[in-house]
Amino acid sequence: MTIERLKQSKTLHLDRIETHHNGGFAFIFKADYKGCSVAVKCSKLSKNCLQNKYANPSHFSYELEFLSNLRKKNHPNIIQLIQDDRQLQCLVLEYISFGSLRTYLFKRRSDTSRPTFDELLLIAVKIAGALELLEEEGIIHLAMQARNVLVNRNGDVKLTGFQFCRTLSQIKEKGIRNVVFERHFKWMDRNALGFVSVVPRTVSWSFGVFLYEILTLGCEPYSHSKKHLDSDELERKALTSSQAKIF
């Protein structure tokens, strides 16, 4: 996805487009939309895949589905969808200036004014409220972790990562092995790790690990170098690591 292709969009009318981030599944651009700064997230699928209407649902399809349904709820701690181009598989989202919560907390370790316990608790409460809404809507967030929370300049937080969300019916249709991603294993409970079940309480476990990330100012859980973890490894090795720095 190039900036030139974005400029050719018949749906999006963007100005001052610049490359912002190269993600795992999408290119992220910063641009102006109707006089406001926005983030533009574009799928990395090839042109042939974009034109194949019979292809399996992509990360873009799931993210668009959930953000479109949640837009009318206007939750203050869920990233807001502004516009989309389904042909190019691009989403226009509100721009969040400080990036991921994990990076934000890690950088603030050396600050003279580190986050207080009350600040960290408020972050947890806000994200818990966002997850409560997802549960009410029947949505299971399968990547609940600090890197999928963004921090704004005013210190507010927004839940993202909706490309990894699924409903129970979607999980049943696709199978657990096709909805649990290897890169998220450190945040999964035993049943998800063993591909036994994925249910709303799976998110509760992930949220508990997310709390660990907050309280250690951005330390990733478990001191494993491998991406794939099985339940036995998780039992043998400690959750924390030498990098942990309690607030």
UniProtKB/TrEMBL annotation:
Source organism per entry reads: Paramuricea clavata
- InterPro entries named in the record: Kinase-like_dom_sf, Prot_kinase_dom, RTK, Ser-Thr/Tyr_kinase_cat_dom
What is the protein's given name? Tyrosine kinase receptor Cad96Ca
Instruction: List, in alphabetical order, the Gene Ontology terms for molecular function in this entry.
Output: ATP binding; transmembrane receptor protein tyrosine kinase activity
Q: Could you tell me which PROSITE patterns the record lists for this protein?
A: PROTEIN_KINASE_DOM (PS50011)
User: RNA-binding: present as a keyword of the record?
Assistant: no
Instruction: Specify the superkingdom.
Output: Eukaryota
Q: Which UniProt keywords apply?
A: Kinase, Receptor, Transferase
* Pfam families named in the record: PK_Tyr_Ser-Thr
A GO-annotated cellular component: plasma membrane
Extract the Gene3D superfamilies matched here. Transferase(Phosphotransferase) domain 1
GO biological process terms, alphabetically, are: cell surface receptor protein tyrosine kinase signaling pathway
